[in-house]
Write a structure and sequence with these properties.
mainly alpha, 403 residues, single chain
Length: 403
Amino acid sequence: MDSRSFKNPYTDYEGPVSTEKLFDSAGHLTSGFIQHLKSKISDLLQHMENGLVKADRTDCSIYVGWTGIALLYLHLHNVYGDQNYLQKAVQYVNQSLKGLTGHVVTFLCGDAGPLAVAAVVYHKLQQIQESDNYINKLLRLHQSVVKSNSRLPDELLYGRMGYLYALYFVNEQFGSERIPLQHMKEICSDVVTSGEKLGGKKRFSSCPLMYEWYQEHYVGAAHGLAGIYYFLMQPEFGIDQDTLLKMVKPSVDYVCQQKFSSGNYPASIGESRDNLVHWCHGSPGVIYMLIQAYKIFKDENYLKDAADCCDVIWQRGLLKKGYGLCHGPAGNAYAFLAMFNLTQDKKYLYRACKFAEWCLDYGKHGCRTPDSPFSLFEGVAGTVYFLADLLQPTKAKFPAFEV
């Protein structure tokens, strides 16, 4: 057994008899389970607010900083429709706007996150001038992302895809094309060009699009190939059919060939250790690439690989690192929800609910305390985000990533 995870204490799905306390035959959560979730969300929010009093005042990121808290409250407003949550979101995003870095351009770790969240929050408050101001500031970063001599990487946390997501986020939250899709197409086109420089070389002859971050060829969602290919396969981002078939699909297949016999994936190309089952490295992030590949290319093998990912996560996804999104059961459970929304198979909704039950016992398992214990991607804010998403499982999306 992998020492990084707890042994899963739950019985796997055995049909309707195993779900009667969780959801009905139509997949609607029971009123009792909904109450349990809402009650825990309130408790954990209070715990988070108490802890944030002593948090680092300077980190404005979504990943572990103030904008992550603003994004949580924006999400809670979207789920519950409560204006108080929107007021909280404003308070935290204003705090974060004081700490812009001026050099990192991504949604999760840079200035694009606070600017995009501020644009959306002020839009929802109907303060149009403020909202437009933040959109304009966000768009001013565009040239630095697409310029030909840019040394920006391509991955999600610190690279081009992280800026792309910020643009997508604004349109998605506005419910309209507030930012021209042409901007996103330009970024994806640049990312393809960048991938061609490393792809197809001797070592990667069967992979037309290859990427690196700090000289490592990472596989997962946060820094790696799976996250990049996932975005390139989104129809609205404008990659043409020819490029999809000749460049993206063989590259996706190359990642599929890296699969361990367990069904998990290595952190980077050439890595032999099968030890990470996190959203950032391993099956919980790779699954989104597989699901999107299945939607685009209609190849059943991708669906089978995605099911294998879910099995690995079920067995090894209750992590000792905490309860968070990046490396914890809250983040890992989103893989089940993605699979449920693709297949409507209740097994996956059941598994997500069981991981939620684990999170409902927050702090009782002897997990490590994360470095940023109240933050969105490492700490309790992310757990609350997941529990709130589970209230509407068919709308659930992994934050700052899933489109």
